[in-house]
Design goal:
Structural class: mainly alpha
CATH superfamily: Nitric Oxide Synthase, Chain A, domain 3
Low-confidence stretches: none
Shape: elongated
Number of domains: 1
Distance between the termini: 60 Å
Strand order of the largest sheet: 2-1-3
CATH class: Alpha Beta
CATH architecture: Alpha-Beta Complex
Strand content: 5-15%
Largest sheet: 3 strands, antiparallel
């Protein structure tokens, strides 16, 4: 990952990230295009994937999430579940808003793949902005998006002062004619 700050790229900057339990279980292990373990889990817990009711997938998915969290916990590795991560993001959003900032986020990445509507982030409006400083993988793929956004400039005090000055100046110019 390359870190960009003030137009300068730092290709060897430290990066920190973590996996969430549901990302491993629901996205990686359960996805039909990846490991597709739901039918296997369903058989193990006594459900039949051939059942016309698709709730076997929900039960298998919950079991798989529980197994992932259990296995990491058993080995002494911290792993956060999707409900805890959702609450942590809500705390972060409240702190940002209390300081007058709007948190950015990609809804499809913040909202967990399982029990989405049971998590408070499901109902949170998000704006997917790419702000700087930020990390990117390469300049061609996503580095060009790392430019300053001026969409909030209209709301700033400087913009307000500038438009007020322009309006007064135009009125003054009209009065001279």
């Amino acid at each position: 990952m390359i870190l960009t700050i003030g137009g300068i790229d730092y290709p060897c900057a430290p990066f920190n990230g973590f996996y969430m339990g549901s990302e491993i279980a629901s996205r990686n292990l359960a996805d039909e295009r990846r490991y597709n373990l739901l039918p296997t889990i369903a058989h193990v817990i006594g459900n039949s994937p051939s059942n016309s009711s698709l709730l076997w997938k929900d039960q298998a998915l919950t079991t798989l999430n529980e197994a992932v969290l259990y296995s990491f916990n058993r080995d002494g590795i911290s792993m956060v579940d999707h409900h805890t991560a959702s609450n942590q993001y809500m705390d972060f959003a409240r702190i940002e808003q209390s300081h007058g900032r709007t948190p950015a986020g990609d809804w499809s990445w913040i909202v967990p793949p399982q029990a989405s509507s049971a998590c408070p982030v499901f109902h949170l409006k998000m704006e997917n902005r790419t702000e700087v400083p930020n990390f990117y993988t390469n300049r061609i793929a996503d580095g060009n998006e790392l430019c300053l956004y001026h969409d909030q400039e209209e709301h700033s005090k400087w913009w307000f002062r500038w438009t007020t000055w322009k309006r007064r100046y135009r009125r003054w110019m009209k009065s001279k004619i």
